[in-house]
Amino acid sequence: MNEYHEYRGNIHMHTTFSDGAGEPDALIESAARAGLDFIIITDHNVLVDQTREGWQNGVLTLFDIEVNDVNLRPEANHCLTLNVQEDVTRFASDPQQLIDAVRERGGLTFLAHPIDKPSPLIPDIYPWNAWDIEGFTGLEIWNFMSEFRPYVTSKRMAIVMAFFPQLFSTGPYPEMLAKWDEWLQRRPTVAIGGSDAHARVFNLGVLRRRFLPYEYCFRAVNMHILTPEPFQKNLARDREMLYEALSVGRCWLGYDMLHATEGFRFVAHSAHRVHHMGDQISLDGPVIFEITTPATAHIRLIRAGTGVVAETQGRSLTHETSHPGAYRVEVWKRRWFKSRGWIFSNPIYLNSHVT
Ligand SMILES: [Zn+2]
Ligand SMILES: [Zn+2]
What we know:
Layout: E1 5-10, H1 24-33, E2 38-44, E3 54-56, E4 59-67, E5 79-82, H2 95-104, E6 108-111, E7 138-143, H3 155-163, H4 174-184, E8 190-194, E9 201-204, E10 207-210, H5 214-218, E11 221-227, H6 235-248, E12 251-255, E13 265-269, E14 274-276, E15 280-282, E16 287-303, E17 307-321, E18 325-335, E19 338-345, E20 348-351
Parallel strand pairs: 1-2, 2-4, 6-7, 7-8, 15-20
Antiparallel strand pairs: 1-11, 3-4, 4-5, 5-6, 9-10, 11-12, 12-19, 13-14, 13-16, 16-17, 16-18, 18-19, 18-20
The structure holds zinc ion (ZN) (2 copies).
């Protein structure tokens, strides 16, 4: 059952059609240079042009929208709406209506940067505040771009950050992981990560510096998906496989700049078969989790609501259990002077057996 095919891509980014610095073609070129298999361009409140979707420069390129209510102050509640073949921005003023409208059209909704932190120099934040909602697909637990904002405490710090951004990325906020675990105790919730690449130029006194260029972002926090069939360079079919993997959570977040996460696997063996991330298992006996990573690191198996149930420093971990729950994996790896988030898997769900 290990015949799944792995693909790497980025699903949150901005072009000149909203507040990004590059034309779509520049993003596609950067993605190709970074070796990505797919990108989803998600400009703010504008569906750029889905007739331009397709395989370009070896990259499956799709267009979706990051929707928010532009009249709301502050402009909170950004939602990535994926796999909708129409402009859904007219539903922006009511997050539940937006989620429902996207779902009715077969699409996916991910709450973008739900926890967002300000800094003295950049006080504006865009968190998710409308938590009285249901029916969304998942949460963007790691937004690569917004993770930098709290560190912008002075101009000097901004300069250090512009030249050595890798020193600042450490992983999703702990509060974000706790929030995700809260939802996982209620229902399946897919986690995604996105670069939120804008590649804007900032003036730092006498210096002008493009902060987090597209190619840099595309080598950083990416999504790795597993598909039952290989991509065929067929837009309709490949697009469907990509969205299907994201909708069930057969995917993980990989901070590939730290070390390539390709080849990571998290499976569960039951008496009957091998199960993958996103799968729901009806428990009728013990299950053995098996985790393998492409390099030595600190592997933690986590049960939502309980915390770490097994951990090791190494390249593999196995753990047997008969307890229901949502089980997920975090892998942390030391680089650039500290332990940093490297891999965040989606869960395998063990449900009580119903007779
Ligand atoms: Zn946003
Ligand atoms: Zn964004």
